[in-house]
Amino acid sequence: MSEETKQQEENVENTANETTQNTEDQIVEVPEQTAEEKIVELNDKYLRLYSEFDNYRKRTSKERIELFKTAGQDILTDLLPVMDDFERALQNMDKKGDVKTIRKGVDLVFNKFKSTLESKGLKPFKSLEQEFDPEIHESITKIPAPNKNMIGKVVDEVEKGYKLNDKVIRYAKVVVGQ
Predict the structure, then answer these.
(1) What average pLDDT does this structure show over 86-94?
(2) Are 133 and 168 in contact (CB under 8 A)?
(3) What angle do CA 142, 143, 145 make, to 5 degrees?
(4) Closest CA to 154 of 135, 138, 170
(5) What is the mean pLDDT of residues 15-28?
(6) pLDDT the model gives residue 135
(7) Can you name the residues that pair with 177 across neighbouring β-strands?
């Protein structure tokens, strides 16, 4: 072997030894945790996570209870002026004997009440002369139909049906033609 070849081999060996030594130094530099320290660390993380979840559960439970307590507050606040109008109408009924004036006042209060409910999403739906639909109607009784076109249709409406944002909240009580 030539001297150059020997020198190249020595350089390769030195480089390999340095790399191995650097790798060993890096491994040694990382602090090793004992199993007990790892258990303590994981237990601490677990307790913190459990506590955080428990606090979240309690907070959402309180918020939910508060929501149920005040769920109807906005509608009731909007209905208070209507209540005031009814009280004024009752007071004025005793004072005045004119039926037309009383009727006019009651109509005004009724229209205000109706518009307040409609602004909250409450709408009556039409039932008279419509096909009987068990999804929105409740049949009280059946009577002979006045004509052939009214068979299976609503002949009379005893109570109006209402929807709140397209969901039936009260079924219409109807009489169906037979």
Answers:
(1) 81
(2) no
(3) 120
(4) 138
(5) 51
(6) 92
(7) 143
Encode pLDDT of 105-115 as tens digits: 889 999 999 99
- What predicted TM-score, i.e. pTM, was given to this entire model? 0.58
Residue 167, Cβ density class (10 Å: 0-12 exposed, 13-18 middle, ≥19 buried): exposed
Domains of the chain, earliest start first: 121-178 (2.30.22.10)
Q: Spell out the SS3 assignment of the chain.
A: CCHHHHHHHHHHHHHHHHHHHHHHHHHHHCCCCCHHHHHHHHHHHHHHHHHHHHHHHHHHHHHHHHHHHCCCHHHHHHHHHHHHHHHHHHHHHHHCCCHHHHHHHHHHHHHHHHHHHHHCCEEEECCCCCECCCCCEEEEEEECCCCHHHCCEEEEEEECEEEECCEEEECEEEEEEC
Q: In the predicted model, what is the mean pLDDT of residues 83-99?
A: 80
| CA distance from start to end of the chain | 118
- Look at residues 167, 69, 174 and name the one whose alpha carbon lies nearest to residue 122: 167
